[in-house]
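From the shared-data thread, chain only:
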Amino acid sequence: MALFPQQALNPGVRKREVFGWAMYDFANSGYTTVVITAVFAAYFVGGIAQKAAWATFAWTAALSLSYAIVMLTMPSLGAYADLRAAKKRLLALATMACVLSTAALAFAGPGSVVLAMLLIVVSNTFYSYGESLTAAFLPELARPDSLGKVSGWGWGFGYFGGMLALGVCLGYVLWAQGQGIPADRFVPVTMLLTAVIYGGASLVTFWLLGERAQPNPAALRQGGLKASLQQLRRTFRQARLFKDFMWLLACAVFYQGGVAVAITLSAIYAEQVIGFQPQETMVLIFVLNLAAAAGAFGWGYFQDRVGHKLALGITLVGWIATCIIAAVTTTKGGFWYAAAIAGLCMGSSQSAGRAMAGMFAPRRQLAEFYGLWTFATRLASIVGPLSFGAITWATGGDQRKAILSTALLFAIGLVLLTRIDMARGRQAAAEADRKARASEEAVAVSEPA
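Structure, as tokens:
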């Protein structure tokens, strides 16, 4: 059996298009790996905020503000993209904004807390827009019974992009430290390197990936913004018809909150609690990305075989174990065990969730439903890191209690997952598509020739 079978793709979809789509995961992974996880997060706490008691909370507050902006705007932006067939155009604008604001982080030095927080808010907001818009292409490319493996292709390949960006930055950091260059001079260069890799790699996406959606004629007559808001209101009113999608969103709020803690705070925890040095942290994150790539790629095939719900449940159990190990270990070796499990679970849990959202999304409302998915994941990214930062602050800097409390988020997500009925969720999406086709045909018949 071929590793990348053509049979996994929808009719008319070529593998080069899927490669172009996966290249966006490759391009943007450097942002989360270098900026949010491995380099800038720890630099913000230790360098820019100079290890102030409120530093971790300020970092999580900046991220939370960006996620709140995305929560409030992405669903309507997704509805607009669907009605205007504008996913690719909006993706290009979001990418450009994220690349430029990432490069601007090079100007944030010791003491410039406000500037650093502002640029993180801007860059992470546009990163989130891009992540949601590119996910909305998935059901257009993959057959319903292959969403897991194709999603895994993207996530798995994406982690190699994160490793490339981190590897380049790590090489530069080791050289800079050997030359006696301080962090406030070498960290800005890593931001520029990350921006260049993000922007350059994303060009492949815009070259190979096409916009398969067609604009809605009624939306063009009404005006895109007005039509998108009306469509979004209809979707929220009909939420009870998509109960399994809504259960998935509730599940995601909790388990993705825990994942967000791992992404945004693992470097801070490794350095401030376990005692890792910056170069050791970068190696740790590099290996974590390697494990995440293997988890996302291999788990994609597994979830298509055993079912998305069971596959996601197994990863949540793994995340609970990760939090407990990280909370009790006092050695670097023990933390490496936690990181290895986290790496395997990270790619697989994120890939499984994205595939499940695609199963429940009507084909005429892909960007909109992925906008709602982004609403949930960004709410999770507020709940998880902000609660971690608040608990750390309230306990006088005890991050062990904070990481242990994160296990509760995964446990709640596991309970909510049991409420999801996959067959019922797919049937609701199919029924919504049938009604949409009938409505469009009725409009076409009623219009004068």
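The two ends are 51 Å apart (CA to CA).
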